[in-house]
Amino acid sequence: xxxxxxxxxxxxxxxxxxxxxxxxxxxxxxxxxxxxxxxxxxxxxxxxxxxxxxxxxxxxxxxxxxxxxxxxxxxxxxxxxxxxxxxxxxxxxxxxxxxxxxxxxxxxxxxxxxxxxxxxxxxxxxxxxxxxxxxxxxxxxxxxxxxxxxxxxxxxxxxxxxxxxxxxxxxxxxxxxxxxxxxxxxxxxxxxxxxxxxxxxxxxxxxxxxxxxxxxxxxxxxxxxxxxxxxxxxxxxxxxxxxxxxxxxxxxxxxxxxxxxxxxxxxxxxxxxxxxxxxxxxxxxxxxxxxxxxxxxxxxxxxxxxxxxxxxxxxxxxxxxxxxxxxxxxxxxxxxxxxxxxxxxxxxxxxxxxxxxxxxxxxxxxxxxxxxxxxxxxxxxxxxxxxxxxxxxxxxxxxxxxxxxxxxxxxxxxxxxxxxxxxxxxxxxxxxxxxxxxxxxxxxxxxxxxxxxxxxxxxxxxxxxxxxxxxxxxxxxxxxxxxxxxxxxxxxxxx
Length: 495
Description:
The protein is an alpha+beta fold and about 500 residues long. It has three domains: about 10-75 and about 160-235 and about 315-385, FAD/NAD(P)-binding domain (3-Layer(bba) Sandwich); about 100-155 and about 400-495, no CATH class; about 245-315, no CATH class. The protein has 15 helices and 24 strands. It has helices spanning about 15-30, 55-65, 65-75, 110-120, 130-135, 165-175, 225-230, 290-300, 345-360, 370-395, 400-410, 415-425, 440-450, 465-485, 490-495, and strands at about 10, 35-40, 50, 75-80, 80-85, 95, 140, 160, 180-185, 185-190, 200-205, 210, 215, 235, 245, 260-265, 270-275, 280-285, 310-315, 320, 325, 330, 335-340, 485-490. The strands form six sheets. It has a seven-stranded mixed beta sheet. The N and C termini lie far apart (about 55 Å). The model has no long low-confidence stretch (mean pLDDT about 95).
């Protein structure tokens, strides 16, 4: 690859991916590099209510965006976790809550003690030991660093917000710091005849835009990474059968809940994301088992308020681009691959892609070793998330439709099969390298989906039945006392 110094960075596409990329790049490289972003008002984005996971806080902090400013600009709310309804079986319910659960024993996670207590007839559910879950169900929120009267970790949170408003905030942020926004539609891509690298983009207006490094944020169509470079795509629809979605916002019910709802349906699931000014809703479904009309009816029947827009239908193909970085093009956002938003990872994947690019950023020319390492890490990250999402489908007890029967029967990646088998037999689960989801996240979903271990850690058996019962009672009391002291979620947003 070339040895020319990388000086000019050109981003194709705005939206959340484009403007997160622009904001982070200008924050870090703005004094030494020229950054341009091309977007067209004529090309729409998938503008829905976005739910996120806790690392978004690090992104805003890195950019120096104040939380109060952020929440006000994006009509944001707090998010303590995701409640999964009807996923294990019809009428079942559990939460993947952020933060800690219970109190670990030496070399032994808390859920082993919990499972032993259940064997002894304990009345408690796993979520009774999650501060986040208990606060969420009571519509409470405060920034608690610790459970009151203990050194146990407190509230861990993320946000819900309007993605288009977040892109607008970041657009203003980026342009104020030197990013040049160019309005226009790319109609031609000029490549170097020898290397195949992209040299310039031609806009509908006739204007040519050059660049040393191009960032493809053009969404599902992958204008540079796929349409131009033919990078290739790994299809995951045999594991993640949903290929369609319909989004439909509605009036926000009161009170505004501090958590996301994911409700499993006959051939997919509905999301409900509470914002300050509206509720974001959508249905993700498989076109093999459900028509667009059926999906819209299912979604409409589940709305908690009056619709505020026309339905927006989206088609997608789950999977990943074979190379996220190919030649002098880095695909970020939907151009790099697609995972359904079941665990709210879209923004996180954008954020991590840009951070990874900054860590691997080429200086005097693009080096194969940097590109290979970037692609290796990207592959590992998205596969870890993929496995976590597949778990929700595979580990279901539902037999009520052909869709769920197929999910039960399907083969799954060996990495996930090994993890499920280990948990079933021993109750143990370990976090993979760089997995965004903690052991506690895996425990909640495995137990919530009724993957019940046949054994527990021997450490849990060192407690007498009385000690075990006291531990459960005391932990639950401490959590409830902490929740009682917290503000109502809406009151917190208003303060």
